Amino acid sequence: MDIVSSMLDLMRRLPPTKIEENVDALMQISPDYADDLSGNVDQPLKLRVDKATGKEYLACVYNQDGESYRSPWSNEYDPPSEDGPVPPPKLRKLEIAANEAFDTYREMYFEGGVSSVFLWDLEEGGFAGVVLLKKFLTPASPLEPSGSWDSIHVFETVERGRQAHYKLTSTIMLQLITRRESTEGSSSDAREPATWKHDGEISLSGSMTRQTEQDHPVQDTISHVQNVGKMVEDMEIKMRNLLQEVYFGKTRDVVHDLRSLDDLEKARKQRELQKELVGFIKR
Amino acid sequence: MALISTEERIEAVSKFLLQSPPGEINDVLNDVRTLIGDDESLETGVIPALQKYNLEQFTVAEVPEAHHTSIVSSTAQILGEKDRFLDPRSKTSFLFDHLSLEASDPQIYEPDQASEPFRSALEASALKYLDSHFNDGTTSVFATPNSTGHFVIQIVANKYNPVNFWSGRWRSEYIVDLDARKITGQVLVNVHYYEQGNVQLETKHKASITLPASIVASSPSSSANKVLALIAGQESTYQESLGDVYHEMGEKTFKGLRRALPLTRQKLDWDKVLGYKLGAELSASKGVFGGSGAST
């Protein structure tokens, strides 16, 4: 296996809660492959505030230039960057429209959170972009569950006459954490029935990635926002179901595979008894 | 970025090994081998990490000359001998190789006569509990040297299914202190699901209970049965409560993060989303953008 695929295999196995520190460690171990790593491993999105508009936006590798990040609202880098790339004027116009559209999408589905869209031209023609969405729930009390959702939708498109071909790669990172503590009274009095005191934490975290390629008609430039919008919406609906299935279904099944709530020994004896009875009747 | 030494790199990959999901330590080790590219330094360098991982994760060993498995943990470690571990059930100790996970060189271990009756009673009850609730479980029950009232029950169950991209581990440990009439314990569950993704369940659960005087006063087998009944009840309650937490996280947190559909119960009308004014404005520039490199 080569170094990059070993790095990616590692990131698929190590705890998603430690993704940032593990990516940093990998970059220290193999500095020559730092770019491959940051380009291929999705990391939790960082929240930043646009100094010009006061509006929040999301920071990731796609709007990064060194230590600076470009805001989709003011188009400015923070801290200012002289040679930080910005989309050409026509693409920037589309980027503004896309940011407005996905801001509405964000409000409709997330009822809060932050969204950002960044676009760039492709050397080989066409353009590419990323749609970012992030929301987190901060618990009002320590025993309420907390969680965060990060969507990273990267797309590429080329126009072919009245059609455009789209390739979408979507990653959703989801983290859910619940703390539990028992409030039952102590049973230091030996006459009282014994009760357990307990406390603990349950964390479900991770990411899933899916891809799709589709063709859609393009009437004018703005059609791209509609097309990508619909594709992202369908993908998120599909992936939300998938996440629900894996997070709440699959992991629970594995726990029940490890330990059975039912008495396995009793079930075994019952089966044996049944076999005996069947044998007895047959005789 | 400054280059770091081989020792520093091995130290960094040791941290990766310690984070390995259930049953995937060899996969992580293989990845790390490619990154380091120096098998000799790696194999000697990561031994401390492998040892730590095996002890923390309650790694299961096939006990030599016995037809059962036992748990390799810090409790099982023979005092003063780093790689020799005790299997109280067969009353033998064995050498354990932390890389190949093989046990060898069995030696007879003389148990403490004063604590052995209650220890073996706990072991018998623990094995019965294991049969009743675990599919692929191992348990080891230890007495504490120079003490007659202090015992450690360890349980581990593993399920590895790499073909379907999942694995899981259940670990529990209980310290039974007859003198203080107390059981303190913990349950740790890890599940990894990695088909086109990486999703992990990690739970930590601590529990403690004061033992009624009647339990302590009974015969070894009767009180051992009661201790294990308490543990079984606790673990089942915990497993059921996980279901409640799942329900709460699904209903509250998951839905609170992102709705399945907007309030309108319909998908977005993207024509309306764009707005007429905005749409009109961009339509005015129709073709201009399309002609500047967007067409192929």
TrEMBL record, chain A:
Region called Disordered, residue ranges: 69-88
Listed GO molecular functions?
Answer: actin filament binding
Question: What SUPFAM superfamilies does the record tag this protein with?
Answer: Subunits of heterodimeric actin filament capping protein Capz
The Gene Ontology biological process terms listed for this entry are: barbed-end actin filament capping; cell morphogenesis
According to its UniProt record, which protein family does this protein belong to?
Belongs to the F-actin-capping protein beta subunit family.
Q: What does this protein do?
A: F-actin-capping proteins bind in a Ca(2+)-independent manner to the fast growing ends of actin filaments (barbed end) thereby blocking the exchange of subunits at these ends. Unlike other capping proteins (such as gelsolin and severin), these proteins do not sever actin filaments.
Note the PANTHER family from the entry.
F-ACTIN-CAPPING PROTEIN SUBUNIT BETA, F-ACTIN-CAPPING PROTEIN SUBUNIT BETA ISOFORMS 1 AND 2
User: By what name is this protein known?
Assistant: F-actin-capping protein subunit beta
Q: Give the species this sequence originates from.
A: Multifurca ochricompacta
UniProtKB/TrEMBL annotation, chain B:
- Example GO biological process term? actin cytoskeleton organization
GO molecular function terms noted in the UniProt entry: actin filament binding
UniProt KW Magnesium keyword: no
Name it. F-actin-capping protein subunit alpha
**Coiled-coil residue windows:** none
Any idea which UniProt keywords this protein has? Actin capping, Actin-binding
Give the species this sequence originates from.
Multifurca ochricompacta
- Family annotation (Gene3D superfamilies): F-actin capping protein, alpha subunit, F-actin capping protein, beta subunit
Q: What does the subunit section of this Swiss-Prot or TrEMBL entry state?
A: Heterodimer of an alpha and a beta subunit.
The record's annotation in Pfam families points to: F-actin_cap_A (PF01267)
Gene Ontology CC: actin cortical patch; F-actin capping protein complex
Function of this protein? Answer: F-actin-capping proteins bind in a Ca(2+)-independent manner to the fast growing ends of actin filaments (barbed end) thereby blocking the exchange of subunits at these ends. Unlike other capping proteins (such as gelsolin and severin), these proteins do not sever actin filaments.
**InterPro entries per UniProt:** CapZ_alpha, CapZ_alpha/beta, CapZ_alpha/beta_2, CapZ_alpha_1
Q: Which PANTHER family match?
A: F-ACTIN-CAPPING PROTEIN SUBUNIT ALPHA
Family as reported in the entry's similarity comment:
Belongs to the F-actin-capping protein alpha subunit family.
Q: Which domain of life is it from?
A: Eukaryota
